[in-house]
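Question thread 4412

I'm putting together a teaching handout and wanted feedback from people who do this every day. The idea is simple: show students a protein as raw sequence, then show them the structure tokens that encode its fold, then repeat with a second protein so they can compare. Below is the first pair exactly as I plan to print it.
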Amino acid sequence: MAKRHLLSTADLTVDDANLILDTAQELASVAGRAIKKLPTLRGRTVVNLFFEDSTRTRISFETAAKRLSADVINFSAKGSSVSKGESLKDTALTLEAMGADAVVVRHWASGGAHRLANAGWIRSSVVNAGDGTHEHPTQALLDAFTLRQRLGSVAGRHVAIVGDVLHSRVARSNVHLLATLGAEVTLVAPPTLLPLGVEHWPCASSYELDPILPKCDAVMMLRVQRERMNQAFFPTEREYSRRYGLQAARMALLPQHAVVMHPGPMNRGLEISAEVADSVRSTVTEQVANGVSVRMAVLYLLLGGAESAIGNDEEGSAR
């Protein structure tokens, strides 16, 4: 059977997505046990291959793999042969020689995970843990999981994704997944922070935040990614926060049941105030906890012999 990968939420059917979310719900019960480990992936090896710094995502994948009893190898580009000029291909061949069953890859280049999965260098399953400004599928899955927990369902809900959409792989993955699951999505950002071609995405867009909030079931605030900005995308941070930041007064425009999300890390005082981030409406800490359950589900379904595949096969043909 061809190996399976999770590279993009656009590859997921509604059945695929619900299978992952339902499996995550079952696996979430493990967190409440005295002994949190399952023997499901005993004897399997999962490699975390990170070409970009990450704390939250790497630790979440490591925890997920260990709770499934897999052997885990953490590979950081810094201090490795990559920093000496080794190519992605040679790094992949090294992992293949180690007998990796799954490679969780975060890469600075958009399409890095697809290249690793489809170039024929390795036989391992590949999970995209973020590639450039392209996608971050497991973040979108844990966001959808959190929405199901808080709101009961995703279908029919209205979600606003606000802020630096241009540089956000989280926004791209969420737009595709939420649309697949039947949600209505509106992107809210200044014109300079909306990508070209956004009119072809399965969502609406707006330059104004306040008119959108009263009809939202959830609002997802995106981090302003200063490290990816090489020019002025807005006049000042104060002006950006005034127009697109979520403060208590603006949160009051939301319906009573609506929740506030953020993929982290947060720029408190810029895209979100401390009062909002720490409010009962905020799902930020839940998203982190849910990330472990969702990533357990992804690894389980990829490596545990489940009947339903996730995403693409080795040749990259969508299901």
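The second pair follows. I'd like the answer to focus on this one:
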Amino acid sequence: MTQLLRVFLAGTALLAMAACEPASHVTEAPPAAPAPPPVRPETAAMYAAQDDGNLTVPAIPESLLTEDKARQLVDYWTEEPVGTIIVDPHARRLYHVQPGNKAMRYTVGVGAAGYGFTGEAHIPYQRDWPRWTPTDSMLAENPEQYGPSAAGVEGGLSNPMGARALYIHNSGGDTFYRIHGTPDPQSIGTASSAGCIRLFNQDIIHLAENTRSMSKVVVLTQAQSGRGTTPPAAQMPTATGGPT
């Protein structure tokens, strides 16, 4: 075999070996997450800009909307009376009980104070475009942010309480737990550092219009999260026992 042939065959073998080795140095970008499907026109219309007294509530950007996040009538099983508001902060949902095992479901944002109360209470009153004052703890923890608002902020489009607030009391008086709107629609469906239970302004207006004074409120614990979303038979524990 000639020297030239030996060099050619050796080079061919090296190329073949290289072809079988994995290209570990080559990385592919992960596929982009699919964009959520556009919401139906009916859904977009629910969250369009709307006049409210002398203020106009801005539309919710469609980029922040999904069909799952929009308010909707859902199946819901509870022994609580019609008109009860059930807050499930750990699932970031609020249910307004309707007749026939139904509830109007709203998606909520939950601030730190939203986990500070559980149990039963009632709504003695609500306010349109309520005034907001930071709590003593908020002022102590972040004086630079909340100090300028220490005397309170009048109701309006930039007020943290949004378009409506439902005030929650129990036998001990004011719980300082609030269900309210927000000027920050991107916070809906998320956890946040401040606030209680917040809804899109369009949703809190809808909820407030359909909530009577002294309506019952139930705030679920983490162990109770999801209660009411499955039929009663499915909620019952499965009986177990030894062999017969």
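Top answer:
Good format. For the second protein you could add a caption like this: The first strand starts at residue 50 and ends at 52. The mean pLDDT is 84.
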